[in-house]
Amino acid sequence: MSLPPxxxxxxxxxxxxxxxxxxxEVIQHLTEFDIQTQDALLxxxxxxxxxxxxxAFQFGERLPRAFEIMDxxxxxxxxxxxxxxxxxxxxxxxxxxxxxxxxxxxHAQEKLTGIAFEDVAGILEHFVIxxxxxxxxxxxxxxxxxxxxTLFLPSMVNQFTEKEDNFSLYKCMTVHLWAQTWFGTWxxxxxxxxxxxENQRRSLQWLHTLEAIRLDACIQRELPGIHREMIRLCKxxxxxxxxxxxxxxxxxxxSTGSSVExxxxxxxxxxxxxxxxxxxxxxxxxxxxxxxxRNIRLAKEKDLFRKAIAHILEEKTSKKISSLxxxxxxxxxxxxxxxxxxxxxxxYKLELDGESIEPPEGVSSLMDSIIQDLGxxxxxxxxxxxDGGYHFEKxxxxxxxxxxxxxxxxxxxxxxxxxxxxxxxxxxxxWCAVRELDVHTAKSSFVNETxxxxxxxxxxxxxxxEVLRGEDKILKKQPYGDDIDIDALVETWADVQSGMxxxxxxxxxxxxxxxxxxxxxxxxxxxxxxxxxxxAERESLVLLCEALExxxxxxxxxxxxxxxxxxxxxxxxKSFDDLYDDATRARISNIKPQDYTRLGVFIRHFTQVFADVxxxxxxxxxxxxxxxxxxxxxxxxxxxxxxxMALVEAxxxxxxxxxxTIDREARDYLPHMYGKTSYVVIDxxxxxxxxxxxxxxxxxx
Amino acid sequence: MIQAKALKPEEHxxxxxxxxxxxxxxxxxxxxxxxxxxxxxxKGPTGCGKTRFMEHMAWRLKKPLIxxxxxxxxxxxxxxxxxxxxxxxxxxxxxxxxxxxxxxxICYLDEIVEARKDTTVVIHPLADDRRVLPMEKxxxxxxxxxxxxxxxxxxxxxxxxxKDLKQSTRQRFVALEFDYPSSELETRxxxxxxxxxxxxxxxxxxxxxxxxxxxxxxxxxxxxxRLLVHAAKLIKAGISPVTACHTAISQALTDDAEMLSAVxxxxxxxx
Lengths: 701, 271
Ligand SMILES: Nc1ncnc2c1ncn2[C@@H]1O[C@H](COP(=O)(O)OP(=O)(O)O)[C@@H](O)[C@H]1O
Ligand SMILES: [Mg+2]
What we know:
The complex is a heterodimer of chains A (701) and B (271).
Chain A: H1 8-17, H2 24-30, H3 35-51, H4 53-69, H5 72-99, H6 101-113, E1 115-116, H7 117-130, E2 137-140, E3 145-146, E4 150-153, E5 156-157, H8 163-182, H9 190-195, H10 200-222, H11 224-237, H12 260-270, H13 287-317, H14 326-329, E6 332-338, E7 346-352, E8 355-357, H15 363-374, H16 401-406, E9 415-421, E10 426-438, H17 446-453, H18 455-468, E11 473-478, E12 483-484, H19 486-497, E13 507-511, E14 517-524, H20 532-551, E15 554-562, E16 568-574, H21 582-589, H22 599-611, E17 617-624, H23 636-652, E18 655-662, H24 670-674, E19 679-682, H25 688-700
Parallel strand pairs in A: 2-4, 10-16, 14-15, 14-17, 17-18, 18-19
Antiparallel strand pairs in A: 1-5, 3-4, 6-7, 7-8, 9-10, 11-13, 12-13, 15-16
Helix pairs in contact in A: 3-4, 3-5, 4-5, 5-6, 7-8, 8-10, 8-11, 10-11, 10-12, 13-15, 18-20, 18-25, 22-23
Chain B: H1 2-5, H2 26-35, E1 40-43, H3 50-61, E2 65-69, H4 76-80, E3 81-86, E4 89-94, H5 96-103, E5 106-110, H6 118-127, E6 132-135, E7 140-143, E8 149-154, H7 167-170, E9 174-177, H8 183-194, H9 198-213, H10 225-236, H11 241-253, H12 257-270
Parallel strand pairs in B: 1-8, 1-9, 2-5, 5-8
Antiparallel strand pairs in B: 3-4, 6-7
Helix pairs in contact in B: 8-9, 8-10, 9-10, 9-12, 10-11, 11-12
The structure holds adenosine-5'-diphosphate and magnesium ion.
């Protein structure tokens, strides 16, 4: 049974509630939909209005046209793109984006049969790392090419009418680009060679085709499954596969052991011929780009390798590198050993005075990368360099933290989380961006004062927590165990004498409680906590830390606040690794009320943090005033339902969520969000640590 | 329950030579350590031949082999023994370690770090030159004969703060490092063990390498020799290579949907 649609007046009223005015003809248009659609569209208008009323108006104006060419999901996507633009470029930029509705619609249509990069990126990234060689990254660009560190693929493939085939094409393009890096297309300085030709464009095109033929044969030998797929796609697209191209002199390219040198030889012979059309999987060769990348990498890796050598020498000889003679600095050798797994047919191992050396972590892959570029480890790489103070940075692409924080929008450096939209009963993907910031460590007497103020309580608490620490218990009447339970045995004996069956439970067993708990406290720093609640939170944290220190459990404390979905912020007060030291104490003191509370995203975030923590029991305790509210529509039922969903997800991941609400009255939605047993309401600081002790007892017993 | 595992050590003689391809000098080192009565630590990822190696050595030395797979509930009493009741009387029953000491057998404690920490207390006196097993419950000190041998295994890949082998333990042992064999050797192992042809075996090994490339980039561990043996057996029984890899290898490595697709794409690209 469905309700009648909203009337003109009803729609107008809802719009008034959001302070949005729309043209009469737009409202008229809205009356024509069923109530679900109307509701969904009004939610979108509301979302837009949360960003800017001007945007909501512009969005509404274009709705009738949008509805002719897009479905509801696409409309949402289109609006979200405009909202994103709004954040960086303001209303005018957003309107420009809205005006692109025709192309957004077309794109969406293509997406139905096509495959978007983002849908398969996860698979392709794993796939290409599984293939041999340097770990390659994958990104999108207009053309398909590689710089030998990243493979660039189109953001969408829709050449075929079946999704499966389009995915196949993505895979084949990936493999061909990988093959360039693995089978040595870039071993030779192509730039220089190509310069000798009059028409460089032509020579590059020919070289690419020759190399493609050579690589195709390599792929056929090494990855026959993929090769079959390539042939199949060519048939589908009605073009000749590479192996069937009729180009003179290319037979040799197809045999084992052929290299880019052969392609260059043949290039001289075919250069003048007409180039065949329509060659698949090709993309482009970009020698200038590769040259640039490669030079940077060669220099960096040579430097790293020589330092690594120095490090090894220092370890082996127990001498400082500066005290070694020039001869001694060259005493590590690289010996070739046959290895059928690599195209060169052999790899290298390091030796010192004829004894082989196991390269340290990271150096093996460094050697592999050097060999991938050069085919061998040149002699001048084997000269120890530097002071031996060797720092091998595995990942030097870490973004500079300053740049990360200065970004206004969620790109690099932020963690993206989904959000549950109860009205539409589905998740909004990558909806919220979380960043980690540091709390000031300005000195403050707050902690000392608190500790003094509650010194009696703290003593008590320590005792309570000590009991919690659990001692070895002797379990009685066990079916098996370390010792006889004499009492039980006597009892049983009596039973047997009186004709009853003998019990087997006559052992004692030592039960060792190995505590293995990790707790994260997430502390509400929203504006609504300003005043006594914030003080209470900070005082509670001091008491908690004092008490938890006696337990020896791992615990972390983070503050959270935010201003719209794009600026969700967490403040590290104490990570699992931080000690409860002066700096941590200062950070507790400096927790200040800030903006709004968007609970769900933080619960998701810390659930994810827990995924990397090894612990039997994972506790996520929220300290809050219990009002999930944010500026952009995250309030009332929406916020409550998202929070509830995030809690369900957390439990599914094995995290026990618990909420301690500091308030003077209980809220009726708390049991709905947290479940009856997983929240408490307190109105006095002194109650809090005892409640925490209760939670501990409850969860760990 | 451990009682059920306390099989008679004399049943553990291995009559037929277990197939084992030596990777380095592990056989010689083991023999030397055995003669010198030094306990042995086998280090290496799961499924790379440690258990097989122990069976092979037991056969060579003509000693019974008692294997205990350690788990996080395994206590010292499970190894040493405990009182049981039969016919209304209590009776002491040796645990596997005590049996091995008493009968001069080889005792292999697999994945020792999984066991509760108190187990190391009972193996320490056995693992230094005292070579005794304290049996507190019965007030005895069981002295090992020259035949007895203690071996433990440990997977450094799973290292974590909670589960690391203590220095005081590891420094009592001669360590043999196990790793996946070279391609050539692994191919030979697979084809000898299962009877599939060398070409198919070498493709399986290639696939294993692909998954090993992914270790640390989404996979906790690459495919072990054991998984390859499983896949090869399925292929031998008529299952297609792609399906065999999917069921015997990919599914064993991960539950993550994207990773699973990627790994499956890798295997189908090889066959
Ligand atoms: N060096 C080897 N020689 C013979 N078979 C091996 C070898 N390495 C591994 N295998 C095969 O792999 C399987 C798993 O090895 P296993 O000894 O159970 O591993 P681990 O004890 O290290 O987990 C064996 O059953 C055997 O089929
Ligand atoms: Mg709030």
